[in-house]
User: Which sequence fits this backbone?
């Protein structure tokens, strides 16, 4: 989740500020949250697979 604020700092430093800032920030937060949830679910599935094989 640290990536989103860093990305916004990049936009500010390069002066490439999107027109609808709120929608831009919220869509990035949502995308990173879904990506993190998918990564967590995949890692959990792999851990469960290994723990059941013992």
Assistant:
């Amino acid at each position: 989740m640290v990536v989103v604020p860093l990305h916004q700092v990049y936009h500010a430093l390069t002066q490439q500020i999107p027109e609808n800032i709120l929608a831009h920030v919220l869509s990035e937060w949502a995308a990173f949250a879904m990506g993190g949830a998918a990564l967590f679910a995949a890692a959990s599935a792999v851990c469960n697979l290994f723990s059941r094989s013992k």
About this structure: The longest helix spans residues 21-52. The helical segments are 3-14, 21-52.
